[in-house]
Design a protein that fits this description.
The structure holds two protein chains of two kinds. Chain A is mostly beta strands. Chain A has strands at 3-7, 11-12, 18-25, 35-41, 48-54, 59-61, 69-74, 79-84, 93-100, 107-110, 114-118. Chain B contains no helices and eleven strands. The chains are: A mainly beta, B mainly beta.
């Protein structure tokens, strides 16, 4: 059974750095074709891709946020970490991590999401 | 960046009705398009991948079609639990992108 869970602060101040951890079980991030991504959703708005990391370490970032994002993985700990620098109120959102496999080649498993509020 | 435009923004229907949701891409995504359902307070749920393949456990009333730039998600007969927001998402080019969503609400 594949599960993912996001953890991190629920409140950050403007200009601070956000660090979110996705802890997963039921799959290995060293298996060919597997990846984990981060997606966010501001309240009442649409989903937005942030970053993605493949089993082989290949990383992809949203071009509009690339300068602020870093995604890393710890295969042995079964964790994927996202850092976002220089947080602003517009970054207030629910942040999800999700698993992508080869079959199906889509985000079949999602974490429950974590709401991050940016406020002084 | 590929822009996905979903229409309509809101669909007001009754249980038992047929729902037809559209997703149009700003350039071809071949068949690399997925559909997700999201209910309030929940994470999205994968319905369809690669345009027309139902994900595991998804009822047969959900079907996807299309290729290139025009895609459709059809719900043949709406059940009460189908009233939700639906998103399309492409994986043809990075950055992968989502549409802005279509809300299917009870009329």
């Amino acid at each position: 059974q594949i599960t993912l869970k996001e953890s991190g602060p629920t409140l950050v101040k403007p200009t601070q750095t956000l660090t979110l951890t996705c802890t997963f079980s039921g799959f290995s991030l060293s298996t060919s074709g597997v990846g984990v991504g981060w997606i966010r959703q501001p309240p009442g708005k649409a989903l937005e891709w942030l970053a993605f990391i493949y089993w082989d370490g290949d990383k992809r970032y949203s071009p509009s946020l690339k300068s602020r994002l870093t995604i890393t993985k710890d295969t042995s700990k079964k964790q994927v970490v996202l850092t976002m620098t220089n947080m602003d109120s517009v970054d207030t959102a629910t942040y999800y991590c999700a698993h992508r496999s080869v079959a199906p080649p889509a985000l079949a498993y999602w974490g429950q999401g974590t709401l991050v509020t940016v406020s002084s | 960046e590929i822009v996905l435009t979903q229409s309509p923004a809101t669909l007001s229907l009754s249980p038992g009705d047929r729902a037809t949701l559209s997703c149009r891409a700003s350039q071809t995504v071949t068949s690399l398009l997925a559909w997700y359902q999201q209910k309030p307070g929940q994470a999205p749920r994968l319905l369809v991948y690669d345009a027309s393949n139902r994900a595991t456990g998804i009822p047969a009333r959900f079907s996807g079609s299309g290729s290139g730039t025009d895609f459709t998600l059809t719900i043949s007969s709406l059940e009460p639990e189908d009233f939700a927001v639906y998103y399309c998402q492409q994986r043809h080019n990075w950055p992968w992108t989502f549409g802005q969503g279509t809300k299917v609400e009870i009329k």
